[in-house]
């Protein structure tokens, strides 16, 4: 029973690490406008300004970034900033880093499995499991 609980805990931990192990991946200059929209975009301009957007849309020669505003409203409001791609010196997106996720998740899974194995070994005991010392009377 504890082994199954350990697997459930491991699955939850892997799910959390999968959603949390992200890294910025630089986009090559020739691929800026390869997709019409990208999420979690970081842009550095030729003026040295840094912008982080929740998402950005791309045209043939421009980028428009959107950042959610923190306002008390039922409707999400976004600030918008457009710029030509010629002004962009560096662009990156935040993506799941599967190598790091696999390493962290695998290590956690290994610890949980070893703990579950040790728990089953200690629960099985080391004594005689014969069931009693008396023989039934003949008859």
| Helicity, as a percent range | 25-40%
* Secondary structure category: alpha+beta
Biggest β-sheet strands, sense, barrel: 6 strands, antiparallel
Number of strands: 6
Mean pLDDT: 81
What string gives the helices and strands in order? Answer: HEEEEEEH
Q: In a nutshell, what does this entry contain?
A:
With 139 residues, the chain is of the alpha+beta class. It has 2 helices and 6 strands, in the order αββββββα.
SSE layout:
Blueprint (H helix, E strand, L loop, with lengths): L1 H19 L1 E5 L10 E9 L4 E9 L3 E7 L9 E7 L3 E9 L1 H27 L15
Antiparallel strand pairs: 1-6, 2-3, 2-6, 3-4, 4-5
Structure overview:
- The protein is of the alpha+beta class and 139 residues long.
- 33% of the residues lie in helices and 33% in strands.
- The chain is built from two helices and six strands.
- It has helices at 2-20, 98-124; strands spanning 22-26, 37-45, 50-58, 62-68, 78-84, 88-96.
- The chain has a six-stranded antiparallel sheet.
- The mean pLDDT is 81.
What key attributes describe this structure?
elongated, 139 residues, alpha+beta, six-stranded antiparallel beta sheet
């Amino acid at each position: 029973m504890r082994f199954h609980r350990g697997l459930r805990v491991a699955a939850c931990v892997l799910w959390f690490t999968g959603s949390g192990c992200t890294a910025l991946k630089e986009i090559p200059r020739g691929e800026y406008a390869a997709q019409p929209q990208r999420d979690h975009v970081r842009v550095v301009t030729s003026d040295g300004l840094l912008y982080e957007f929740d998402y950005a849309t791309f045209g043939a020669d421009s980028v428009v970034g959107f950042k959610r505003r923190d306002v008390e409203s039922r409707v999400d409001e976004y600030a918008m900033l457009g710029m030509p791609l010629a002004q962009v010196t560096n662009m990156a997106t935040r993506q799941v880093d599967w190598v790091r996720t696999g390493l962290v998740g695998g290590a956690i899974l290994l610890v949980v499995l070893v703990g579950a194995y040790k728990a089953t070994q200690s629960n099985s005991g080391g004594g005689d499991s014969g069931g009693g010392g008396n023989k039934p009377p003949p008859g």
